[in-house]
């Protein structure tokens, strides 16, 4: 089998598979051998390969989770959460890859893995810049419509789709901040400001619990997780990927909403299809708590990606958010 792997530092978080491991996975999934495996460089959590398998006319995508011993508590078994989310994501099924095989047994390799169909298209970060800025509003308008469709799905509990289930939104937010703080401290990083955010969330529990209707959150949907039609005259989303961080809660807490508000540019078209946000004082305060949670997760990710400068930058941003929350 021909294997093209991404070169990484020996201590990098992402760990590739050997040719023998990929062969074993293909035999388990298809009873066939892999002829070629190309590791894809995008993504910063799972290891991802495009496979050409004997007897199959179309390539498939293999996604392999990190070893469980390397996973943080706040990111534990994310692939299993994505798999549990698929019935809830049926509203956007035509845009999603189909799952062909999945294995949590750790019998073939000591990691969770999933094989999916290979969607046509080019990653949006690579192709969106080929269109004039004035034309990119089409992309963000479509992204807003996709987010709206997902956020309209009602869940049966608060928290991650695969659980544990919570009966209140405040309990999810407080537990999430606390778990990320625990992860940061186990990694040897300062998490005092994250714990302050958890304390403020506890003090504002009643405001968080004004959210009584658990809605489905995408968790991580933005340009990096979109594919574009290579031939379309204007940006056309042909697929969306990586829903491993889905949860039920307040749509305003979703990463997609955070990113849509990050700049005043062509992304403002997002709101023409998504709709208006609640701008009440209570919603504004909740948004501050959500930003603290995003910043805490970003700090953890930057540490995982061995970017100490960005880890340091997160402290100033967090202090600004905490100051606003205290006011």
From TrEMBL:
Which Pfam family is one of those matched by this entry? APH
A Gene Ontology molecular function term for this protein is: transferase activity
What residue stretches are annotated with the Aminoglycoside phosphotransferase domain?
39-275
The enzyme class is transferase
Is DNA repair among this UniProt entry's keywords? no
Superkingdom per UniProt: Bacteria
SUPFAM superfamilies in the record, alphabetically? Protein kinase-like (PK-like)
What Gene3D superfamilies would the database entry show?
3.90.1200.10
EC assignment: the record states 2.7.1.-
Q: Which UniProt keywords apply?
A: Transferase
UniProt keyword Magnesium, yes or no: no
| Name of the protein | Aminoglycoside phosphotransferase family protein
Q: Which organism is it from?
A: Kribbella sp. HUAS MG21
């Amino acid at each position: 089998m021909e294997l093209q792997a991404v070169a990484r530092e020996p201590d990098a978080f992402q760990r590739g598979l050997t040719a023998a491991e990929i062969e074993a996975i293909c035999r388990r999934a298809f009873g066939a051998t892999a002829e070629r495996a190309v590791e894809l460089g995008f993504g910063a959590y799972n290891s991802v390969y495009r496979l050409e398998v004997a007897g199959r006319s179309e390539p498939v995508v293999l996604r392999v989770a990190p070893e469980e011993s390397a996973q943080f508590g706040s990111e534990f078994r994310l692939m299993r959460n994505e798999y549990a989310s698929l019935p809830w994501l049926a509203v956007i099924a035509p845009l999603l890859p189909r799952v062909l095989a999945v294995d949590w047994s750790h019998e073939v390799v000591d990691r969770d893995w999933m094989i999916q169909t290979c969607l046509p298209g080019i990653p949006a970060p690579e192709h969106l810049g080929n269109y004039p800025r004035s034309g990119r509003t089409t992309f963000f308008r479509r992204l807003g419509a996709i987010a709206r469709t997902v956020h309209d799905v009602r869940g049966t509990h608060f928290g991650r789709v695969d659980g544990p289930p919570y009966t209140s939104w405040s309990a999810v937010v407080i537990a999430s901040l606390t778990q990320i703080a625990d992860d940061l401290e186990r990694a040897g990083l300062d998490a005092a400001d994250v714990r302050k955010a958890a304390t403020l969330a506890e003090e504002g529990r009643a405001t968080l619990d004004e959210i009584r209707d658990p809605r489905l959150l995408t968790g991580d949907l933005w340009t990096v997780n979109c594919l574009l039609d290579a031939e379309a005259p204007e940006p056309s989303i042909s697929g969306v990927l990586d829903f491993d961080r889905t949860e039920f809660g307040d749509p305003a807490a979703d990463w997609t909403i955070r990113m849509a508000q990050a700049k005043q540019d062509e992304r403002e078209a997002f709101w023409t299809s998504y709709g208006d946000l609640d701008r009440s004082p209570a919603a504004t305060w909740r948004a501050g708590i959500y930003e603290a949670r995003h910043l805490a997760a970003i700090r953890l990710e930057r540490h995982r990606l061995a970017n100490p400068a960005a880890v340091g930058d997160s402290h100033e941003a967090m202090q600004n958010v905490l100051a606003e929350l205290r006011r």
